[in-house]
């Protein structure tokens, strides 16, 4: 019975990956080398490299500190269960939150240094108080989601024993889907876009991409940062795109803003939000299975003693699968870039938008390979320029 379930799940995962893998970008597309100094300017490239290199090193140190802390907590944390009178699930949730609080504290100096660095390079203008308030909000959200996750997993494990992982993973996928669907409704930080020409371009692109009217919103961030960003979220009737107001300003020209717009709309026309949930399932199923196996000798996920161990297992699993997860999102981003080229037919503006992104966020146009593997959710900016040129070669006589 157990083997049959395992085989079925594996087959399901394989089918899922095969179905999700293809993209609209041509498979035989060869990206040429881009002289980043010529495109982005030598001065910007050097500054961005200096800015990012420091953050790479900081990231390595913070990861080492994180894993070391969680490892110690996994060994010692269970000691707290003796003091608790909260019942097994309550104790497990307390242990989870305690672990999170310790991790937050250990990581705080790294985040502080990171913010100091961003201020130094003018990438951020947010004062330390604003920054800390945001950091706390994030911690609060993490407390809530971890508690909910533990409630579900521990509740299932106490009823179903080792078989909790399958319904457990399904529950997480369900929650992810629900959250993706409703998040545009609970977002109070954006206003509808009012830029007439951009809205007209949106109508044209939606037609070309086979999309209905997708609301476009603007989020005010320019008081706190120069960084430029935009995103697509929701799915089905809740689809929406959001520009940071920094994209609607210098150094982004109207043509470059249209490129960003088309890219975000393409995330919707290519179903990237729903695909993202399916991909989440592809990772969550083995993740839950590994968690079940790893915590067996501590009494399984139903036992509070297992929770500190579960935290380090989850962290290691996430780090170990980051290269695969980033590979997936890079493919989606490349697909959105390709569709944006098809509907805007404006590779020059794609190039300009990439320079603008590097200028405002000090993104290294061509980061080291290991950085792309571990942290690269998007193709390198230089590769995105290379794609624009490849598109041009194919589409101009
Ligand atoms: Zn994107």
Strand content: under 5%
Please give the largest β-sheet.
Answer: 4 strands, mixed
Low-confidence stretches: none
Mean pLDDT value: 92
Number-wise, the strands total 4
Q: Cα distance, first to last residue?
A: 61 Å
Overall body shape = globular
In the sheet with the most strands, the strands line up as 1-2-4-3
Compressed to H and E, one letter per element, the order equals HHHHHHEHEEEHHHHHH
The helix-and-strand class reads mainly alpha
Ligand inventory reads: zinc ion
Can you give a write-up of this model?
- β3 (230-233) and β4 (240-244) form a beta hairpin.
- Helix content is 70%, strand content 4%.
- It has one domain (31-395).
- α3 packs antiparallel against α4 (87-120).
- Strands 1-2-4-3 form a four-stranded mixed beta sheet.
- The mean pLDDT is 92.
- The longest helix has 38 residues, at 307-344.
- The protein has 397 residues and is mainly alpha-helical.
- The protein starts with a helix and ends with a helix.
């Amino acid at each position: 019975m157990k083997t049959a379930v395992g085989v079925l799940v594996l087959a399901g995962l394989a089918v899922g990956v095969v179905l999700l893998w293809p993209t609209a970008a041509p498979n035989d597309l060869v990206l040429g080398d881009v002289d980043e100094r010529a495109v982005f300017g030598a001065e910007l490239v050097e500054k961005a490299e200096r800015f990012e290199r420091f953050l790479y090193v900081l990231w390595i140190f913070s990861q080492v500190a994180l894993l070391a802390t969680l490892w110690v907590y996994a060994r010692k944390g269970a000691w707290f269960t003796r003091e608790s009178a909260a019942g097994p699930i309550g104790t497990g949730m307390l242990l989870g939150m305690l672990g999170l609080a310790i991790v937050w504290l250990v990581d705080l100096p790294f985040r502080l240094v990171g913010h100091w660095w961003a201020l130094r390079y003018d990438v951020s203008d947010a004062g330390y108080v604003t920054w800390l308030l945001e950091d706390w909000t994030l911690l609060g959200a993490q407390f809530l989601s971890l508690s909910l996750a533990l409630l579900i997993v521990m509740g299932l494990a106490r009823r179903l024993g080792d078989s909790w992982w399958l319904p457990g993973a399904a529950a997480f996928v369900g929650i992810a889907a629900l959250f993706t669907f409703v998040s545009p409704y609970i977002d109070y930080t954006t206003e509808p876009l009012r830029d007439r020409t951009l809205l007209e371009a949106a109508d044209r692109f939606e037609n070309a991409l086979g999309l209905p009217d997708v609301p476009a919103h603007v989020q005010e961030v320019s008081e706190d940062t120069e960084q430029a960003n935009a995103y697509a979220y929701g799915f089905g009737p809740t689809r929406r795109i959001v520009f940071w107001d920094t994209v609607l300003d210098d150094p982004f020209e109207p043509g470059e803003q249209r490129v960003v717009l088309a890219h975000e709309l393409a995330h919707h026309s290519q179903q990237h939000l729903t695909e993202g949930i399916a991909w989440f399932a592809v990772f969550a199923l083995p993740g839950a299975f590994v968690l079940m196996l790893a915590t067996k000798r501590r009494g399984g996920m139903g036992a509070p003693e297992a929770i500190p161990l579960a935290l380090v297992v989850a962290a290691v699993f996430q780090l170990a699968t980051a290269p695969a997860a980033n590979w997936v999102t890079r493919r989606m981003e490349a697909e959105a870039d390709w569709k944006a080229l098809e509907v805007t037919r404006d590779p020059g503006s794609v190039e300009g938008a990439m320079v603008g992104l590097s200028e405002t966020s000090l993104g290294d146009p061509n980061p080291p390979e290991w950085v792309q593997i571990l942290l690269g959710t998007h193709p390198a900016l230089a590769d995105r320029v290379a794609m624009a040129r490849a598109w041009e070669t194919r589409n101009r006589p």
